Signal peptidase I
Amino acid sequence: MSWLTGGLYAVLGLYLGGWYLGKWTGNFSLLLFVLSVVTLAYWLAERFVFAPRRAAAARALETQAQARAEELGRRGITRVDSDVDGARRAALAQPWWLDWTAGLFPVILAVFLLRSFLFEPFKIPSGSMIPTLLVGDLILVNKFHYGVRLPVINKKIIANQDPQRGDVMVFRYPSDPSIDYIKRVVGVPGDEISFRDQRLFVNGEAAPLQRMPDPGFYDESLMRYFPEFKEKLGQVEHRILVNPQYQPYYGADDKISFPFRENCRYDAQGVRCKVPAGHYFMMGDNRDNSQDSRFWGFVPDENIVGKAFFIWMNFGDLKRIGSFH
């Protein structure tokens, strides 16, 4: 079995190495599932096959040692020079390939269950959610807030709360589900969402917007200030960056294609979309620097990962640790 275990570790190392070097895209949920199944097989084999065999071998050593001592005793020899305890410990000891498989099963299973059904950590890779979330923030995502889903296939089996306007949500990017995105929910099924002249409208009503005092938000990476506003979606009040003087060009671009593309109308002032059933309209808080539903369409319910709610670490600024809206 040692050669089989060595081969499995070689495959694991090759997979992780290629993932790290960008040769292929890894799937951490699938990897944890496979590791859980493989280590479970070793754990069961250890519990019901290998451990009983070692225990039987230890008992046989004790029986042989006792029989030898009795035989020598009948011959008048009372001092027996033997290390039965040492031999017994050696017989009962797990080999390395069981230490690194069956021994890891409880830890891998705990991580798999915790990550799949309770909380999952993520790292913010881009500035699309500035000023709410900064590049380098390490966040926690509540995996059961929107319902319990089966790991790997992401199939919802138990419903919970529906996403609400204003939630910060992690989801699988519709165009490439292997990539996780994080944006804010601005439109739920049935809403008509407009973003025109740098203002957000929900069902024809402008989202309340209040400008923050100058000089605004200072972006350390760009070493400049940006206009900062306080916006309210439903009961959630949050900050956004938007420059009223900046007017991105949307246009009636027929090259923009995504499911339910017919629900959206583009022109020089912005975009207007009717959110279809079972889908959500997502936008980044950094409105001038966010690739979101304005450009690639709606997020289906089956792509939802969970609700982001807590910054647990930022190694560059420990004061960022805490909850956010």
Observations:
- The chain has a mean pLDDT of 90.
- Residues 2-112 form one domain.
- The radius of gyration is 29 Å.
